[in-house]
Amino acid sequence: MTEAPHIDPRQALLISALSNAIKYQNVPKAGAVLGMVLSAHPELKAQAGAMKSMLADVISEVESLSDEKRRERLSELAPQQLMHATERKVKEKRDTSLPDLPGVENGVVMRFAPNPSGPLHLGHARAAFLNDAYVKRYGGRYVLRMEDTDPKRVDPEAYETIAEDLAWMGVGITETIYQSDRFLLYYDAGKALIEKGHAYVCECESETFRNLKLEKKACPCRGRVTPENLSMWESMLDGRYAEGSVSVRLKTDMQHPDPAIRDFPLFRILTSVSHQRIDACVYPLMNLSVAVDDHALGMTHIIRGKDHIANTRRQEYIFDYMDWNKPYYYHYGRMSIEGLVLSTSAMREGITSGIYSGWDDPQLGTMRALRRRGILPEAIGKTMTEIGIGETDISFSWDNLYAHNKSIVDPLSDRFFFVADAVEMQVSGAKPQKAEAQKFPGEPKRGIRTIPFDGTVFVQDSDIHDQPVMLRLKDLFNVSPEYGSSPLTGMYAGDALADARAAKAPIVQWLPPAYRTSCLIRHPEGDISGYCEPEVASYIGKTVQFERTGFVKVDSAGDGGVIVYYSHR
Ligand code: GLU
């Protein structure tokens, strides 16, 4: 029997953590790393206890490396593993790419059709990016259509907000149209449908119609002759009907299995509210205006959510009656987003009542909030196209979005110390000196931060919570704290990193009184306050990494300190 080759447990952990970090663009949890190593090398089980104590160190080593450095390190340690990690990623990318569409020989015409009721959020982003990806793939036109036919749901500011959001997202809109400019087109289509005998003016009370519809019975108005319908239609346009007294309905099929399809309405009268952009009393309902525009603008493919399936069926009736060629329709599955309010009206209420600080509050899933948090549009687009146009319902993965974002921002972000819930510690036994820390580990050319030590440091409360016998002040030296005194005291305990490792000392961030500024992290789960290095104030608009906390986008700086928005770990 040949003896199994000797495996260094720390090295095995490091290899596993590195290859996972490369493969998934995310450093795995300590427990997962240990589990993976033990299942690949069961002979190490006897050393599991000792290996557990190495984990924190291994994970922080991997976390501190850029993607490039992780690859370099893994290729030194286990080139085979590097190949596997990269191969798998390429394969996964191909599997999740968007399927090809039919009928694309002459390019495509697609649209993004939001209601201008508020800024765009993650729900909109899916439709916006999926359609965009196809227009980019096949060439053609990408119409932004402001669906503003319901004056009750128009927020006048949203026209501009949406355009700004899309510009930031990098979506390639080729033209913008407003449905409120196109009422005459809708009236023409309404008239044509009445003339062809496919639509009628209905005077039933909505409750009466609803009951008849549920019993699959036609209402008395359905039998009205065309000339009479036409003259009532003209009277509607002349403003001779009161709000709610009449509507125009499409004759579909009163036996249709879905009651919502049975003789659905095309137009209504609205006089109690006025529209921001036009003067009208006859308003088209969405199925009429959407079908007319999809035809008039020559849409080739429509990609929309499953919640629009009934609308597609309704709109197909209009296409058939008007003898128009239908576009290809696709309905992607529902996407739930854990812990997130996506309804525009609920967000608005929360802003009014002060739960959110504005549309860009870090708790929200608006493009504005994500932008402020340093989430890049490329990462959002990539996440959405990976989710794709499948009909299966899915839950949105923040982890995927963050991993994509991290792979972009990580190599660009300088590193700084941040200390939350700062606790003062008087350190004796060490001379005043200066710590030199690289702005980016392994790339000294990017700059050095000089952090003075003068005997007093602030450390993070959670780092001393378990009262470790030794702490390593990162990039400085080791300290043995003496707990119980106030302020806390500590003794210099040598410079050697190896001693810190042997003592299982946590490597902690620290800041001296002379070199710190107050820092507020606006976090989706609640703000965090602490201190950071003063230099952070010169990074406004940029992302930096607070190594133990995560990536943050520097938002503003003033007398009160620095405000940053949290991106992700
Ligand atoms: N404006 C509607 C929406 O945002 C319609 C979109 C569509 O017809 O696909 O849900």
Entry keywords:
569 residues; 22% strand; 37% helix; alpha/beta; binds glutamic acid; seven-stranded mixed beta sheet; 18 helices
General description of the model:
The chain has 569 residues and is of the alpha/beta class. It has 18 helices and 27 strands. Strands 12-25-26-27-23-24-13 form a seven-stranded mixed sheet. Helix 2 crosses helix 3 and helix 6 crosses helix 15. The longest helix is centred in the first third of the chain and has 17 residues, at 79-95. 36% of the residues are buried. Glutamic acid (GLU) is lined by residues 113-115, 147, 290, 304, 308. Residues 113-115, 147, 290, 304, 308 line the site of glutamic acid.
Q: Quick gist of this model?
A:
The protein has 569 residues and is of the alpha/beta class. Strand 18 (471-473) and strand 19 form a beta hairpin. Bound molecules: glutamic acid (GLU).
Rounded average pLDDT:
94
CA(first)-CA(last) distance: 47 Å
Task: Determine the fraction of residues in helical runs and give it as a percent range.
Answer: 25-40%
What is the strand arrangement across the widest sheet?
Answer: 12-25-26-27-23-24-13
Given as residue ranges, the uncertain stretches (5+ residues, pLDDT < 50) are 89-95
| Beta-strand content | 15-25%
Bound molecules: glutamic acid
The main pleated sheet reads as: 7 strands, mixed
Care to count the β-strands?
A: 27
Overall structural class, as computed from helix and strand content, comes to alpha/beta
